Every structure is written in structure tokens, then in C-alpha cells.
Amino acid sequence: MTEIIDGNAVASEIRDDLTDAIETLTDAGARPGLATVLMGDDPASQTYVNMKQRDCEEVGIESVHVDVAGDASPETLYEEIAALNDDPAVHGYIVQAPVPDHVDYREVIRRVDPAKDVDGFHPENVGRLVAGDARFRPCTPHGVQKLLESAGVDLEGKDVTIVGRSDIVGKPLANLLIQKADDGNATVTVCHSRTEDLAAKTRDADIVVAAAGAPELVDGSMIGDGAVVIDVGVNRVDADTEKGYELVGDVEFESAKEQASSITPVPGGVGPMTRAMLLYNTVKAASLQEGVDVDLP
């Protein structure tokens, strides 16, 4: 029988395991602080920010939010970033993407203090990850690693096919999985929109990670017998429901489930892990900045 990898359950365990570290830091006068920055009023972004604030409240992390008008100048946003860089009570922060078209997101990331870049997107942190000395692992790739660990998947020598080459998921995950480490040592193929015969690449893989942002791109015919399937995609598609839509992944779940030994659902798979690993990175940032040693899960 196919194992459904429960991201909600694994994320809950990680949040619980962070409690002792947060208490240790708080007792030392260094309660972890996470700030969120939202430029504009995109409803989906506002929802994500609200969830992150709620997550912080549940585990005892101080939460700060900064709103910037969508029509404000880039310099206005940069001033808020500079203030967060200088605020000792804020150990980490994220600038919620997307930002308005008149703002260069890469420039935004470059202005974030790398020590507070709990998304792991700053060029310095990307370089450290590639070099095998990551300060912060990006949240979604790290969450994928934790899900594989929870499912008892031994990556050593395994063939992994990642569908998608984004800076947020595909590229950093590939770099993590090839590292000489207990949660690495895999042989990784990264596929993208120009890949020829994608199905052949995925069928040959022991583990398939779908992260292309394309609804139900990967179906059961593209999955080898007994493969592990991690579906990173979250796509809103029209449906005859009360909301008028439903959420689906990059994997066609029902047909893939017939082939896979283990698979993540959407929702309830990778999504909760991304949020949990943001808390993890915030606690790690506080530990590093305050010089207080803590045990991290």
C-alpha cells in the first residue's frame, strides 16, 4: 500500500521540537524575532503572511509585520529593509514575493542582511549552500529533505529527478541532495521546460520531486514502480466547488499514487513544511546572532 507522507504531522513535530530551543533563547533574554514585509495588497501574499504570523505565535517567536504601499518607491522598501537589518530584536525576516513590477526583487534580496536572510536567498547564503557550508537551507528544499527523512528514504546512491529549476526550489534542492552528507549523496537530474522526453527522466528515478508550477504535469505513466514522489506544486484550478476552484499539485495524485511507494498530497504535504522550516531558520538565526547554543531538530 502506498504511504501518504503527512506534511502536517511532520511539520507539527518540528514545531514541537523547536520549543526547547525557543525557551532556552527566551530565558537568555534573546527571544527569537521574525519580521515579514509585504509590499502591496496581493490577497495570496497576505494569506501567507498571516499564516506565518500565526505560526510564530504558536511556538513563542516574536512576530513583526511591515506593510509597504504597493505604489511606493523602491527606496521606501529599501529603507524598511535597512531598519530591519539594524533592529537587534529582529533575528530574521522575509520580503514576501512577488513585489510590484517596478521593484527589482534581486536587488531587494541583495539588501537583506545575510545573517537575517531566513529564506536563504541572498547571494552569500546561496554560495555557502553550494560550497557545503550552508548558514540557512532554503525552507522548501529543507522541508523536502525532512519529509524524505520522515518516510525513511535513504538517499545515498539514489537517482533523483527534480522537475523545475527555480532559484527557490529546484536549484537549491539539487545542491543539497548531492552534498556529501547523511541527507545527501544522491545522483540528481534537474529537468525543465526545455528537457527532451521528460517522462523517460522521471520514470528512471527512484525519487521524483515535482516543482515546476504546472498543474498535474506529472502523471502515473511518468512514475517508475515503487518510486517516492514529492509534490511541491500548489496550483489553483477552476472547479465546481463552493469557492469555484481547488488546489492541485504538479502531480496527478490518483494515477501517481498507483505507482509510488510513498507520495505527498496537495495540500498537506510540502506546504506545511516550508512554514515549519522558516521557524527553524529563525531560531537558528537567533542562536547564531545571540551566541546562545541550542539543539535544533
UniProtKB/TrEMBL annotation:
NADP(+) binds at G164, R165, S166, V234. It comes from the Archaea. The keyword Metal-binding does not apply. Keywords: Amino-acid biosynthesis, Histidine biosynthesis, Hydrolase, Methionine biosynthesis, Multifunctional enzyme, NADP, One-carbon metabolism, Oxidoreductase, Purine biosynthesis. One of its GO terms (molecular function) is methenyltetrahydrofolate cyclohydrolase activity. One of its GO terms (cellular component) is cytosol. The keyword NADP applies. GO terms for biological process: L-histidine biosynthetic process; methionine biosynthetic process; purine nucleotide biosynthetic process; tetrahydrofolate interconversion. Residues 138-288 form the Tetrahydrofolate dehydrogenase/cyclohydrolase NAD(P)-binding domain. Residues 5-119 form the Tetrahydrofolate dehydrogenase/cyclohydrolase catalytic domain. It catalyses: (6R)-5,10-methylene-5,6,7,8-tetrahydrofolate + NADP(+) = (6R)-5,10-methenyltetrahydrofolate + NADPH; (6R)-5,10-methenyltetrahydrofolate + H2O = (6R)-10-formyltetrahydrofolate + H(+). InterPro entries: Aminoacid_DH-like_N_sf (IPR046346), NAD(P)-bd_dom_sf (IPR036291), THF_DH/CycHdrlase (IPR000672), THF_DH/CycHdrlase_cat_dom (IPR020630), THF_DH/CycHdrlase_NAD-bd_dom (IPR020631). Signal peptide: none annotated. Its EC number is 1.5.1.5, 3.5.4.9. Pathway: One-carbon metabolism; tetrahydrofolate interconversion. Belongs to the tetrahydrofolate dehydrogenase/cyclohydrolase family. Homodimer. NCBIfam families: PRK14167.1. Catalyzes the oxidation of 5,10-methylenetetrahydrofolate to 5,10-methenyltetrahydrofolate and then the hydrolysis of 5,10-methenyltetrahydrofolate to 10-formyltetrahydrofolate. This is Bifunctional protein FolD. It comes from Salinadaptatus halalkaliphilus.
